[in-house]
Amino acid sequence: MVQAVVANQQADVAQKVQLAMLRKSMDMQGSAALALLQGVTGALPLATSGSVGTQVNVLA
């Protein structure tokens, strides 16, 4: 009986640690995605000559 209680407590602690690590990794991924998006956004001028990019911004 005591072993079952101890095992349950250990499993609970392990689950809490795993959940904390999951949240931390999701926060890190969100920060990285936001940094990528901030690097891409901004006013991009249209091309002034040529047949591509004079009507619509085209970014490869």
Topology of this protein?
Blueprint: H1 2-40
Structure description:
By secondary structure, this protein is an all-alpha fold. The protein has one helix at 2-40. The termini are far apart. The mean pLDDT is 86.
N-to-C CA distance: 64 Å
Mean pLDDT: 86
Beta-strand residue fraction: under 5%
Secondary structure tally: strands: 0
Overall shape: it is rod-shaped
Largest sheet: none
N-to-C series of helices and strands: H
H/I helix tally: 1
Low-confidence stretches: none
Protein name: Putative motility protein
Organism: Hydrogenophaga borbori
State the main characteristics.
rod-shaped; 1 helix; single chain; Putative motility protein; YjfB_motility; mainly alpha; 60 residues
